[in-house]
């Protein structure tokens, strides 16, 4: 297991370099960030040259990337065009988005897997049909529509929650935004769990467990569910980074100043340092989440061994 972890960590290095290089190149072709600093009027050539020297934009792109990667080892993610260090923006944004993501993941695990087991063990029955129709509706409706409707109902009409989230963004305030953020993924987890449960129900080891007279609950939890969770864990693991990076719409709806909000502001203002810095951390989140998922395979299925 130790050798496998070391090998995977070494494999992450070229993946990280390649992903950050691609992101750096894509962000640097968005446009001239200096032009955005001057507003609607064109920048004075002397002012534009000074700003480019100040932020290192006068260097070739490859040299900017090498300088950026070198600064990462010292914890320097650059400086936003307003003079604020990007690391400070991260310190205020990531804790909020992490809490929001935790709420969303809990919805996926608790609600999604529960509904998946319920429908998978009752395939073809009315409850299965109802859940399938509901999940199909959730998948079909855009997230911004779901968010606005739930905000209108729970926040404006029924006054069950606040329509927007405060600056503290505690877990209680993030329940409704977390549900909105997790809605589509929750539907996929439900359908994926249902399919996996339904397929494994016909397996020999399940028939053997039933023939031995084991209680239904033990057959489902100890045998059927455990072996059916591998594809679900894979989806949830890869979804962690997607939720953190894809929270732009949800955070805009509920006025949450998290990662999505900072990325949106960075893109609109062509603030390349902010966008590259935040996406770099999200790349690390994806890599670590995938490593944890691979290690969980051995926990769920004892037959899986890593050399």
Structure overview:
The structure is a single chain. 74% of the residues lie in helices and 0% in strands. With 307 residues, it is mainly alpha-helical. It has a domain of 176 residues: Orthogonal Bundle (MetI-like fold), CATH 1.10.3720. The mean pLDDT is 84. The termini are close together.
Q: Which keywords apply here?
A:
single chain, 307 residues, mainly alpha, MetI-like fold, 14 helices
What's the structural blueprint in terms of helices and strands?
Layout: H1 2-28, H2 33-37, H3 45-54, H4 61-72, H5 86-120, H6 126-140, H7 143-157, H8 175-200, H9 204-211, H10 216-228, H11 230-245, H12 248-253, H13 259-268, H14 272-300
CATH topology assignment of the domain at 93-268: MetI-like fold
CATH class label of the domain at 93-268: Mainly Alpha
Structural class: mainly alpha
Biggest β-sheet: count, sense, barrel?
none
Overall pLDDT metric: 84
The CATH architecture assignment of the domain at 93-268 turns out to be Orthogonal Bundle
What proportion of the residues form beta strands (DSSP E)? under 5%
Q: What would you report as the Rg, rounded to the nearest angstrom?
A: 23 Å
Total helix count? 14
Low-confidence stretches: none
Taken from the alpha-carbon principal axes, the silhouette is globular
Order of helices and strands: HHHHHHHHHHHHHH
User: How far is the N terminus from the C terminus?
Assistant: 6 Å
Percentage of residues in helical conformation: over 70%
Give the full name of the CATH homologous superfamily of the domain at 93-268: MetI-like
- The total strand number stands at 0
